[in-house]
Design brief:
Length: about 130
């Protein structure tokens, strides 16, 4: 009986661990919680208004934040998936046709963890430029 219970508990722990999301989308109203990210987003809205790409930030508690921008006020972004492989972290976003109130619409994607190199792409496989 004890072996069966132990096996069931291990299976439950593994199942719950697999259900944990590896990412979250930060609300834009909370951007002041991360000053480096806020400064970068302000730059996207004032100086780099046509820049389509992403930038990775280290934030609190050893986590990461990816800021992805569209480069056009006619597109918005949604996260489709975050896949964490042994040697790479892949973020897939969906580009949605929409008129935005932002000059350069962006999304703030928090990562629970990151492995290896970073790749950000849209659903069509088009890669976003790193850095900037």
């Amino acid at each position: 009986m004890k072996k069966g219970f132990a096996a069931m508990m291990i299976a439950l722990v593994l199942l719950l661990g697999a259900c944990t999301k590896e990412y979250w989308v930060m609300k834009k109203k909370d951007i002041n919680d991360e000053p480096g990210v806020r400064i970068f987003v302000e730059e996207l809205q004032k100086e780099k208004t046509d820049r389509k790409g992403y930038k990775l930030f280290s934030i609190s508690q050893g986590k990461s934040m990816v800021v992805v921008s569209t480069g056009t006020p006619t597109k918005e972004l949604e996260v489709v998936d975050v896949e964490i492989l042994d040697d790479q972290t892949i973020v897939t976003v969906k580009e949605i046709d929409a008129e935005s109130d932002e000059v350069n619409p962006y999304i703030l994607i928090g990562l629970e963890r990151k492995n290896g190199s970073m790749l950000v792409k849209n659903e069509d496989g088009e890669e976003y430029e790193i850095g900037f």
